[in-house]
Amino acid sequence: MSGKTQTVTTHPSMGAIPGAKGVTFRVWAPHAEKVYVTGTFNDWSKTSAPLVNEQNGYWSTDVSEAKVVDEYRYLIHTLADWKLPPLSRIDPYARKVTSSIGNGIIYDPEAFDWGDAAFHMATGNELVIYEMHVGTFNVKEEGQPGTLDSAIEKLPYLNNLGINAVEVMPVAEFAGDFSWGYNPAHPFAVAGIYGGPDALKRFVKAAHEHGIAVIMDVVYNHLGPSDLDLWQFDGWSENEKGGIYFYNDRRSQTPWGETRPDYGRDEVRQYLRDNALMWFGEYHADGLRWDMIAYIKSIDGNDDNPANDLPEGWSLMQWINVEIAQRFPGKISIGESMKNNPWVIKDVGAGGAGFNAQWDAAFVHPVREAVITRDDTSRDLGAVSGAIEHRYDLDVFRRIIYTESHDEVANGRSRVPEEIWPGKVDSWFSKKRSTLGGALVLTSPGIPMLFEGQELLEDRWFQDKNPIDWSRAEDQHGILGMYRDLISHRRNLSGVTRGLCGQNVHIYHFNDEAKLLAFHRWDKGGPTDSVVVVVNMTNQNRDGYPIGFPQAGLWKTRFNSDSYNYGPNFHNHPTPDVETHEEGADGLPCSAEIGIGPYTVVIFSQDG
User: Fold this and answer.
1) Fold of the CATH domain 3-89
2) pLDDT tens across 407-462, in order?
3) Quick check: 376 and 370 in contact, CB under 8 A?
């Protein structure tokens, strides 16, 4: 093929961009002496399609013969040694690849038919998130991971459960076929084993049709570290480190490898910003969840060591979050810091990172510990109370609360029911105390999150080759029904528990000896709004137990986790509706005597 069809381009985008006259190729390789693009469109010629040096580190050309679905690579000749063969690299911006060590595939990001349906994600106070790992969520073929298309089959199930947002663990192309996804080899390419970019678009479209928002998990604290073509991309590096996309000094070090992106380099900042915005613009995602941002903020992930701070990492997060807010209003950006750093969710103008919410370590650790502890007298009711009341600012929905996540049920730790009684997840104790934690997640102020299979009492620990056992949906239909009922109350679907969507919480009854507490949740207050939640954290029934109530009148039992409906061996301890007395208690104007079963949560509210 002759070189006459290649010309310098003024196209501002990066990667392989299809157009009316072929495909534009543009790549950043500041230390290259020559760059060629080779692929199926030119019979993998090494010299027929040269890119033109734009004199700013970028190279580009238009190739009229190239088309969508063609495979391609860049051949980069370095200044170091012309005698060596060129570096063969996959396009850093490739939207699709044959594999993590294969070729890029020219892809048209605008070809997918999204239809006319508009989708609006629920506001933070009404969100219930389900963390999903595509590879294990709905496996159809033994020995193979699940796919985005197989995940679509379970969207009606999630809708029936009451879930209105899924947080999808990373789907960027990774090494091999099995992974959690936190080892992105090609950040812009959707993993082929999951179905590639069109499959993700089908998933998002179907999720929206079921009223479910999609939040993408992204990894910017490190890349790879394996199958990483970005490593020494154009041949240059210092200290035998990663080259142009990475820090080349001690700042490269992370717990996952020496592959921290160089947040201070404009081209790398642009690369990560373009990736973040791609999920919204091209995939119609509703939010991002950023993995372990403490390692974007600092070298060692430690907030208390200023010498290791990465101010350019903080400013990168600020820039991207401002861009998201301006370009995609109504979307959500969630940071995983786990350092209880209030500045994560403060506005950029005030010096904060600009996230809408963050995963709350101050909730998961004390609540998880409380329900796992064997001895009732050792349960730290004070820590549980602190977890319920914790907030990062005036808005209680700036935190994500949970007892199970991919981190909490792996890495040496198991699912909560397994932690309670190893090998006996179907036991009464495992069921009662794990759902005690689940009920706290769904009644405390914050955005609640479940991890896939939590509602099915999944056992053991999370592994990328251990799929969800969907037979448990029948075997554990009672536990599944409990979570469904709790989510319904959390979202006020019955119209009588609006307070669970409200900003206000007051723990007004605290009995450390009895390990029993009660708290009031409300939005504006009054019938159908004010909600009273009572939590019994011991293996003892309580009858005729006096607590305060915020208003006079009849308080109806909306939920009782000890019901036979949720387990045939549950006690079904009676917790009848109560009519309040005029005598006040617990600092509230009214009181009543209640009954509550062991390891049980009860929800009361009033009719209008």
Assistant:
1) Immunoglobulin-like (2.60.40)
2) 999 988 899 999 999 999 999 999 999 999 999 999 999 999 999 999 999 998 99
3) no
